[in-house]
Specification:
This protein is α+β, with helices and mostly antiparallel strands. Helix content is 31%, strand content 31%. The chain has six helices and 17 strands.
Length: 470
């Protein structure tokens, strides 16, 4: 009788422990883009809300799964919330799993989070996670609060751009479900029919994680690689975009215990997870870099801002308002085009004004040079006139000085060279006279008097020739 009583106590303890352990939350059913840990972002999420489903496969033979659905939304000023409904896996001993008649109770969880601090690409958030109400199997339509999973947390986020990749890291501290598992129930000891558990574990711990957005499937928003330590074990996964709005989530939970997949079963049992989520964009895209028909990415990098080059258009339900908005946008583009054309015309006008000023300056300079040239010519002719008087007076040296002064003012006067040649001839310097006559003839090939003088000089008849150039 006593042994039977002990067996009943042991079975009751096992059922009670399965209630405690059944609350392992399903991956990808909490707010944020990670698998089990909370996240933070320095900007508002680019979607109105996100919802989806997820399943964790804990065993295939016998078949054992945990499944759930979720909904999350950011309500403004950095405050966001979420709801999840989960049916955990059966945590009966693995050897008895095929014979188990235990139906895990449904769980309903609430999640709240507030962004407190933002600086450049760093943000800090605090919140409560896994406020779980569990359906009580002993009472119909009754829910009980499971305080063992309740998690208060603070998380620090950093978002970096590494070329085509975006790398987000998360580091935080949490309690409850974010703390290490205190003890494996199946390793617990029974003394006098009572379950004795090890309470030396901690009820708080740290968690870390990263999310790397890759350029693969970039036309649908890019594939994400997720890795995290949730306080109990290591989880890794992929977020594969099926469209710009739908994502397929694949991953493994507690990878460090995968080698013991079929040996035993506990609350931190490894699992393979498959999920699908859908996000409703906050703003539809009007234009992106690839053109009007290109892809969109409403996920960003854990709520990252809309990529550069993307313009948005407010969501209008009324088609008339939408058409009016398109017309206004068209007019705005036309006005921008006209402004560009006006700027081009102004640039051309300025160029023409500069050319006009240049031509005016050139004309003024030409007039000045002409006036100077005329002044020099008049002055040179006065020197030549005085030289002629000195020549007829027989003062050849003074006549030569006046000619030299005339040539300084105008070195291209053929008459001056011809007169200087005649002066040198009178001074008996035939060689210099010949040089100057040739210079005069070079400047004025039609200078007949000089030509006749040179011809007479060559024929030794210069004495009888008259100096008509005088």
């Amino acid at each position: 009788m006593k042994n039977k009583k002990h067996r009943i106590i042991i079975i009751s303890a096992l059922i009670t422990s399965s209630f405690v352990l059944a609350g392992a939350r399903v991956a990808n059913t909490r707010p944020g883009l990670m698998m089990r840990i909370p996240t933070s972002s320095n900007v508002k999420t680019p979607y109105l809300f996100r919802t989806g489903v997820s399943t964790e496969f804990h065993n295939f033979n016998p078949f054992n799964t945990a499944k759930g659905a979720f909904f999350e939304i950011e309500m403004g000023k950095g405050f966001s919330g979420g709801f999840s409904a989960v049916i955990p896996g059966d945590t009966t001993r693995l050897s008895k799993l095929k014979e188990s008649q235990y139906n895990p109770p449904a769980e309903f969880g609430f999640h709240f989070q507030q962004r407190l601090y933002v600086y450049n690409d760093i943000s800090v958030s605090v919140g409560l996670q896994d406020i779980v109400f569990r359906s009580d199997q002993t009472k119909e339509e009754m829910l009980s609060l499971n305080t063992s999973l309740l998690s208060a947390f603070v998380v620090l986020s950093s978002q970096k751009d590494l070329g085509e990749y975006k790398f987000n890291t998360y580091f935080g501290f949490g309690t409850g479900g974010l703390a290490p598992v205190m003890a494996d129930t199946l390793d617990a000891e029974y003394q006098d029919g009572k379950l004795v558990q090890d309470t030396s574990g901690t009820t708080a711990g740290v968690f870390v994680g990263f999310l790397m957005k890759t350029p693969y499937f970039s036309r649908r928003g890019g594939m994400d690689i997720v890795g995290e330590f949730d306080g109990t074990g290591v989880n890794v996964g992929l977020r594969i975009p099926l469209t710009s709005d739908y994502r397929l989530n694949l991953g493994f939970t507690h990878m460090e215990k995968l080698p013991e997949w079929g040996n035993r079963y506990w609350s931190g049992h490894p699992g393979f997870t498959v999920g699908l989520d859908f996000a409703v964009p906050r703003d539809p895209r009007q234009r992106i870099q690839q053109g009007p028909s290109g892809p969109t990415n409403i996920y960003g990098s854990d709520g990252a801002s809309i990529p550069q080059g993307v313009e948005t258009m407010s969501l209008h339900r009324d088609s008339t308002i939408t058409m009016a908005n398109v017309a206004v946008s068209t007019l705005r583009d036309s006005m921008a085009l006209m402004n560009n054309e006006m700027r081009n015309l102004l640039v051309r006008l300025n160029a023409m004004e500069q050319n006009s000023r240049f031509l005016s300056d050139s004309l003024s300079s030409l007039k000045l040079e002409t006036n100077i040239s005329e002044k020099n010519m008049n002055e040179a002719m006065r020197y030549l006139s005085r030289s002629l008087r000195y020549f007829y007076a027989g003062d050849y040296r003074e006549a030569l000085k006046e000619v030299d002064l005339a040539l300084e003012l105008n070195p291209n006067l053929a008459l001056a060279y011809a007169r200087r040649g005649s002066i040198y001839y009178k001074l008996g310097d035939v060689q210099r006279a010949t040089i100057n006559w040739n210079l005069a003839l070079r400047l004025d090939p039609e200078y007949t008097d000089v030509r006749n003088i040179l011809k007479a000089l060559n024929e030794n008849k210069l004495k009888s020739a008259s100096f008509n150039e005088e």
